[in-house]
Design goal:
Layout: H1 3-26, H2 29-40, H3 48-64
Transmembrane segments: 6-22, 50-65
Protein name: Amino acid transport protein
Keywords: Membrane, Transmembrane, Transmembrane helix
């Protein structure tokens, strides 16, 4: 892992934790599941570009899908 991967992972994990807490308190499944995915997926992705792409997509899903 390089510095960029660590920083992207930290950023997405922080947003993932916020989505997780919001989804749990509000009883909404989409933010809850996206939060879990945002906290876990950086461990499995090696490419910085792919990491940013997946992370930004997961950040946008709760804004597009209301559920």
């Amino acid at each position: 892992m390089d510095t960029a991967s660590l920083l992207w992972g930290l950023l997405f994990s922080a947003f993932g934790f916020a989505y997780f807490v919001y989804g749990k308190k509000q009883g909404k499944a989409v933010p809850l599941l996206c939060g879990i995915a945002l906290m876990v997926f950086p461990y499995f992705v090696d490419s910085d570009l792919l990491l940013a792409g997946i992370g930004l997509t997961l950040l946008a899903v709760p804004l597009v899908v209301r559920g």
